[in-house]
Amino acid sequence: MANPLTILANPDTFKRWTKPLILPIGIAAVVLLLAGSFVGLFASPPDFRQGESVRIMYVHVPAAWMALQTYALIAGASLVSFIWRHRLADVVAREMAPLGLLFTLLAIATGALWGKVTWGVFWDWDARMTSMLVLAFLYAGYIAVWQIIDNDWTAAKTAGILAMLGAVNLPIIKFSVDWWDSLHQKATVIKEGGPSMPASMLLPLFLMAFGYIAFFGAVVLMRSHTALARKKAPARKVSSVRMEEAPAAS
Q1: pLDDT tens string 31-57
Q2: 13 within a domain of the structure (yes/no)
Q3: What does the radius of gyration of the chain's CA atoms come to, in whole angstroms?
Q4: What is the mean pLDDT of residues 5-16?
Q5: Which UniProt keywords apply (predicted)?
Q6: Is residue 2 predicted with pLDDT exceeding 60?
Q7: Is the pLDDT of residue 188 over 80?
Q8: Domain assignment present for 148
Q9: Distance CA 121, CA 115 (A)
């Protein structure tokens, strides 16, 4: 029996299986983000310490989660490419990177706004903020490698090495508030013993988080389909030219 990973690695199979998913995932993203925004703005309570500014959390925290998870997926796809030589993994990883950078910058920007209200400063060079900034540079470097190197094989190999090496930054981001003194509070959602946040705040937080995931999935699939179509187009063009030249040669 064939390995499911090998079957899905075929570009034609990948497109055939995933194309019907794009629209429903996109619709789910819109519904979840609208619901999360409404509940977060109008139906969730203000925090007893932070007041109304706590609503920034519903954008900031899911963006930070997605920034880390997207990079982990890119590093994982790069590892798959190195071990099994599945070129589709490189294509999908490349198409995920701009979204990962977007989530990272959104997390940094909203974190700065939240920090100004909560701590009185937009930025502090603590471990969490600094490691998130490093993540933004890793994303930018990964994207730059693909843009600078013309040969796809060389670009994929170089970018993949960067992605896998950069993955060491992910646990630093995650555990920085536990390992070093930080302005950031420790984990309140994903932690031992369960969340220490009321359900009225968890609901919009998870609605937004799943909305981000659905948005990410739909956009990555669309970008991957477009990238695969671009890779196939030159081959079709060359084939067409050869067919046109064949009668003249004969």
Answers
A1: 999 999 999 999 999 988 888 999 999
A2: no
A3: 22
A4: 83
A5: Cell inner membrane, Cell membrane, Cytochrome c-type biogenesis, Membrane, Transmembrane, Transmembrane helix, Transport
A6: no
A7: no
A8: yes
A9: 6
